[in-house]
Amino acid sequence: MPVSRRCILLPAAIAAVALTFTAAGCQKSADEAKPTPEAPASTPAEAPESTPSQSPAAAADATVLFEVTGSGTAITIDTDPTTDRVYDAPLPWQRTITVGPDVQLLQVVAVGADNAGCRITLNGQVVTEQPAGSAHCTYTRP
């Protein structure tokens, strides 16, 4: 027994997919037989640029000033992110470093100086400060 084939009319949204898989013997209408223009391929110059996840201000390096205030001598002074320990440091003391946008924790600790205080300045703005008698300052960048 011969098998008959039928063309089924589909909604416009499905028609394009159905035309790709039409069975043998189905005929396309005159409109469907016309080639559809393809969108031009984008060239590398036309490709959209990726947007950085951070704003330019957040992506910039920052200047950090670590300070230990007071008088006398500190047995040790430690700063973080640089782990350079300073021994027998005369007070007042300071160190300036540049940090990248990935550095979040800033810290200065002075040991052995009874009247020492501390301060951390980020890009010219004091972000944390402790009075004399407490020489441990920490700041976490947002």
TrEMBL record:
Principal location class: membrane
Signal peptide: 1-23
Segments for region (Disordered): 30-60
GO CC, any one term: plasma membrane
Membrane is among the record's keywords: yes
Compartments (UniProt record): Cell membrane
Low complexity bias spans: 39-53
InterPro entries per the UniProt record, alphabetical: MmpS, MmpS_C
Keywords for the protein's UniProt record, in alphabetical order: Cell membrane, Membrane, Signal, Transmembrane, Transmembrane helix
Pfam family, any one: Mycobact_memb
Family (UniProt): Belongs to the MmpS family.
Protein name according to UniProt: MmpS family membrane protein
Biological source species: Mycobacterium dioxanotrophicus
